[in-house]
């Protein structure tokens, strides 16, 4: 397979994946994700994670594995 054909196939895959991601939020998708609800839920998760990190204590600059 020549280089140009490989590049085009990779570009097509990337665009198709992006289309699939956007479909999750598209107004015509009957099972779409409500962006506002998802945003609020993720904010709750962030708070839970931050709370647990605070409870574990330690230096904020500890290396993450």
Largest sheet: none
Rg calc: 20 Å
Oligomer: single chain
Structural class, from helix and strand content? Answer: mainly alpha
What is the topological layout?
Elements: H1 3-23, H2 35-56
What would you note in describing this structure?
The chain has 65 residues and is mainly alpha-helical. The chain has one domain. Helices cover 66% and strands 0% of the residues. It is built from two helices and no strands. The chain has helices spanning 3-23, 35-56. The longest helix is centred in the C-terminal third of the chain and has 22 residues, at 35-56. The radius of gyration is 20 Å and the shape is flat. The mean pLDDT is 92.
Task: List the defining traits of the structure above.
mainly alpha, about 0% strand, about 60 residues
In short:
The chain is an all-alpha fold and about 60 residues long. The chain has helices at about 5-25, 35-55.
């Amino acid at each position: 397979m020549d280089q140009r054909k490989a590049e085009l196939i990779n570009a097509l895959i990337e665009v198709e994946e992006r289309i699939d991601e956007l479909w999750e939020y598209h107004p015509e998708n009957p099972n779409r994700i409500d962006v506002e609800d998802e945003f609020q839920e993720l904010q709750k998760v962030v708070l839970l994670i931050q709370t647990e990190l605070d409870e574990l204590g330690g230096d904020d600059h500890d290396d993450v594995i």
